[in-house]
Write a structure and sequence with these properties.
Blueprint lengths: L8 E2 L2 H8 L15 E9 L7 E9 L6 E10 L10 E7 L3 E7 L4 H11 L19 E4 L14 E2 L3 E5 L5 E5 L14 E8 L5 E10 L5
Antiparallel strand pairs: 1-5, 2-3, 3-4, 4-6, 5-6, 7-11, 8-9, 9-10, 10-12, 11-12
Length: 217
């Protein structure tokens, strides 16, 4: 299990995301700087113990209405070859030293563990506590066996999220702009759903990730 270090980060994750989010096509804020707050999320374990994997939810309060975003991140102790375009920034970690933070949709370690989560082969972990499952994160998979897919192709952003296509027509879609919705999603083969906190202190719940097989209509 990954060990969560409670230490200083310079710059902080939210400071990195304040600069990075407005560069994304799915960011719905205006021309001003985002006003971000951490609103939820979960972690996954890297089987090799080398890469930190976090699915962070942040809420931007800079507009007329708060908007929550799903931001999958990976943290590495060295640059990821060929992923310069996916670099969110670098941080100095009080225990681990310099860390390279990447948009996790472009990191094969995160993508592989996300598929394992959907299929029930791994469990979501609490965002802030070591060796503690996150019971609010739910998943479903309707396939009869692990999908024989390769999501290593370039992730494609649009105005609502990010899609990772596989050669067999299967697609992983990450819902970057989060909206409350029921867990059941009848048109998908698998999904991950979770909760996050709204600015008024209430909790919202919706789909984080959907797995689609076959032609999309």
């Amino acid at each position: 299990m990954a060990v969560i270090h409670h230490t200083d980060l310079k710059p902080t994750k939210l400071e990195l995301l304040t600069s990075w989010l407005p560069t994304r096509p799915w960011y719905l804020g205006g021309a001003g700087e985002p006003e971000l707050a951490k609103a939820g999320g979960f972690r996954l374990d890297d089987p090799q113990g080398e890469v930190g994997i976090e699915f962070m939810v942040v809420t931007d309060a800079s507009g007329t209405q708060p908007i929550s975003y799903l931001v999958p991140l990976t943290y590495r102790g060295a640059p990821l070859d060929g992923a310069e375009h996916a670099l969110v920034g670098t941080m100095e970690h009080g225990v681990l030293g310099r860390r390279w933070a990447y948009d996790g949709c472009h990191d094969p370690v995160l993508v592989a563990q996300l598929q394992a989560l959907i299929e029930g082969r791994v469990q979501a972990q609490d965002q802030n506590t070591s060796d503690t499952p996150d019971r609010e994160v739910t998943r479903s998979y309707l396939g009869g066996s692990p999908a024989p897919t390769d999501f290593s192709a370039t992730a494609v952003d649009d105005h609502e999220g990010t899609e990772l296509p596989a050669p067999d027509g299967t697609t992983l879609r990450l819902h970057r702009v989060l909206r409350p919705a029921p867990d059941d999603a009848p048109e998908v083969t698998g999904y991950v759903a979770g909760s996050w906190q709204l600015p008024d202190g209430t909790r919202a719940r919706g789909l984080f990730v959907a797995l689609h097989t076959g032609p999309r209509t």
